[in-house]
Amino acid sequence: MCESNVFLKKQDGTETLIMENVAAITPLGTNTFLLKGLLGDRQEITGRIEDINLMAHKIVLVAV
Fold first, then answer.
1. What is the Cα–Cα distance from 46 to 64, expressed in whole angstroms?
2. InterPro entries in the record, alphabetically (predicted)?
3. CB contact at 8 A, 6 and 21
4. Which residues have a Cβ under 8 Å from the Cβ of 55 and sit 6 or more positions away?
5. Are 45 and 61 in contact (CB under 8 A)?
6. Which residues lie below 8 Å from residue 29, measured CB to CB, with a gap of 6+?
7. How many independent structural domains does the chain possess?
8. What are the tens digits of pLDDT across the range 11-47?
9. What is the band of 2 on the pLDDT scale with cuts at 50, 70, 90?
């Protein structure tokens, strides 16, 4: 499977898991993304993309 986990990195450098098993990310506007999960769950998140590591199945967004 190719799903990834999305984390939000805060200003202090800590990362918080936002959503597991994300199958798609759709940009909605400046720094806003719609995360779509494998089972149909959805979550809108505001942040800037810092890192996408598909081998590790990890996507990191930075809080803005």
1. 7
2. CooT
3. no
4. none
5. yes
6. none
7. 1
8. 999 999 999 999 999 999 999 999 999 999 999 999 9
9. confident
As a whole number of Å, the end-to-end CA separation of the chain is 30
Band of residue 1 on the pLDDT scale cut at 50, 70, 90: low
Encoded tokens for 60: 């990191």
Structure tokens that stand for 2 in this block? 């190719």
Separation CA 21–CA 41 (nearest Å): 10
What's the domain range around 23? 4-62
Measure the CA–CA gap between 46 and 9, rounded to whole angstroms. 11
Q: Which residues contact 59 (CB under 8 A, 6 or more apart)?
A: 4, 5, 6, 7, 22, 25, 49, 51, 52, 53
Closest CA to 63 of 9, 1, 7: 9
